[in-house]
Every structure is written in structure tokens, then in C-alpha cells.
Amino acid sequence: MELKQWLTNLAVELDISDIPLDDVAVHTLLDLARDSAHEVERVAAPLTTFLVGIAVGRGATLGHTAATATALLLNTDASG
User: Could you give the residue ranges of the DSSP H alpha helices within 1-80?
Assistant: First the structure.
């Protein structure tokens, strides 16, 4: 199954198909997952994107939340 089809099917099953997951959002999440996996450890990738998803679900924007997480990753890296 292709990624776009998987995401569409999953959104329907989770009853969240009204939430758009466009190419920009996908790239933002994949970049965040990559950065957290490399800067923390591999398991940080799904857990970080999960926490970002919760923040977005509570009303934050994806761009702002991802930027906050990335800043924290870079700050942690600089101080570590």
C-alpha cells in the first residue's frame, strides 16, 4: 500500500478525515522524526511525533509545535 493511501485509510478509520495531512505536514513530521531520532535516540521519533500530535489536537499549529520541538532538540544538543 502506498503512503498516501495508508494515511487516507487510517484517517477514515480514526474518524479524522476532516484534518488535512498535506505534503507540507508530512514533510514537517518526517523531518521532526528524523531529527529527534538522530539527536536523542531512534525511539524518540514516534514518541516525539505523538506528543506533537497531541499538542496539535489541543489547538496548537503543527508548524509552531514542530519548531518548538526542533528548537528544544538543538538546544539539548548544544548543551549536551
Answer: 3-13, 23-39, 44-57, 62-79
* Full residue range of the structural domain in which residue 57 is found: 19-79
Is the distance from CB of 40 to CB of 73 less than 8 angstroms?
yes
> Measured between alpha carbons, how far is residue 31 from residues 11, 15, 34, 35, 36 in Å?
21, 26, 5, 6, 9
- pTM of the predicted model as reported, rounded to 2 decimal places: 0.83
C-alpha to C-alpha distance for 2 and 22, rounded to whole angstroms: 15
Does 11 fall in a domain? no
Tens of pLDDT, residue by residue over 33-75, are: 999 999 999 999 999 999 999 999 999 999 999 999 999 998 8
